[in-house]
Structures are given as structure tokens and as C-alpha cells.
Amino acid sequence: MVITKNIKCPSCGVFNTNRDYCKDCDTLISFEKKQEQKVVAYKEEELKKVKYDIENPNLAERLKKHPVWLFRIVGWVLYSAYLLISAIGALIAWFVAMVAAG
Ligand SMILES: [Zn+2]
């Protein structure tokens, strides 16, 4: 059995059978293809974010390398505060897990 898919083009209204693109105006009409493209676009977006993070390290990291020593100190203070907050967060998570388990 052959499954025929009739998809109406959203931009010109022409019915297309078993086509990914409209025969009349070339608009993408395949739902699967649209999903695929969305996934690809999402991955590219994520990749951009990662690249941005690598190229733009956080404020503390940048300040730590600042030529002015005062800014470097601020960077280290921020960095320490960040580490401390992470440690406290981990400790709280551990504590909650212990309480939940007990
Ligand atoms: Zn069309």
C-alpha cells in the first residue's frame, strides 16, 4: 500500500502529493522536514551559545586577567564568591538528599 500525502501549501493553497516542497512556489510544506530543520536550527543555536561562552568568559574570569591589579582582586573576590555559592549549593543539595533519604 502506498501512502499518499496530500499537503496544502500554506502560502499559495496548491495541493501537493508526496512532496516536501510546493510544486508551485517552492515553500517547504513537509511537516517532517520542518521538524528536521527546527532541530538543526536549535543545534546551531546551542553551538553559538557555547562558542559565545568560550569567546566571552564570565566577568570573574576576565577580571582575573585584567591588567589593573585592583580589578584582578575584584575578579578573585567574585571568583571566590562564586565558588563559595557553588559549594553551599552543593552542600544544601547533599543535605536535602540526606533528609529525603532518611
Ligand atoms: Zn505553494
Overall SS class: mainly alpha
Distance between the termini: 59 Å
- Along the chain, the helix and strand elements come as EEHHH
Main sheet properties: 2 strands, antiparallel
Low-confidence stretches: none
User: What shape does the CA trace take?
Assistant: elongated
| Ligand inventory | zinc ion
Keywords: Membrane, Transmembrane, Transmembrane helix
Transmembrane segments: 69-97
Structure characterization notes:
- The structure is a single chain.
- The mean pLDDT is 88.
- Helices cover 63% and strands 6% of the residues.
- It is built from 3 helices and 2 strands.
- It starts with 5 loop residues before the first strand and ends with a helix.
- It has a domain at 58-102.
- It has a two-stranded antiparallel ribbon.
- β1 (6-8) and β2 (15-17) form a beta hairpin.
- It has 102 residues and is mainly alpha-helical.
- It binds zinc ion.
- Zinc ion (ZN) binds at residues 9, 11-12, 14, 22, 24-25, 27.
- Keywords: Membrane, Transmembrane, Transmembrane helix.
- The chain crosses the membrane at residues 69-97.
